[in-house]
C-alpha cells in the first residue's frame, strides 16, 4: 500500500511540475475540517439516498387503506418527491465535495507559472 501511495505522489508531483514550478519556501497548510468532511461524504450520500427512499418503499409495502386510484396517486407523488429530494441531496453532496477539493488545492504548496510579456504595460519596451 505504501508503494502505491508513493507512486501516486510521484505522478502527482510530475503532473504539477508540468503546470508550474514550486515557489521556493512555500509550505503546505495542515489538513483541517475539509479532510473530515471529505471522508464523511460517501456515507452522507448513501444514507441520504436511503432515507429519502424509505417513504415510497413504505407506501408500497404497507399501503394505507385508500381507494386504488388515490393510492396510485399517493405513490406517484411520493416517487416524484423522492426523486427530486435525491437529486437535490446529490447536488448538495457534490457541491460540498467540490468545495473540499478547492480547499485542499489551496492549502497545497504554491506554484509559479511561466512569465509572459505584457502587451499593454505602462512603459514602452526598450
What does it look like?
- The structure is a single chain.
- Strands 1-2 form a two-stranded antiparallel ribbon.
- It has 3 helices and 2 strands.
- Helices cover 69% and strands 3% of the residues.
Give the tags.
single chain, 126 residues, mainly alpha, 69% helix, 3% strand
Q: Shape from CA axes?
A: elongated
| Percent of residues in helices | 55-70%
Number of distinct beta strands: 2
Distance between the termini: 57 Å
- What class do helices, strands and sheet pairing give? mainly alpha
What share of the residues does DSSP label as strand, in percent?
Answer: under 5%
Mean pLDDT: 85
Q: What is the tally of helical segments?
A: 3
**What's the assembly state of these chains?**
single chain
Strands in their spatial order, largest beta sheet: 1-2
What series of H and E elements makes up the topology?
HEHHE
> Gyration radius, to the nearest Å?
26 Å
Low-confidence stretches: none
Main sheet specs: 2 strands, antiparallel
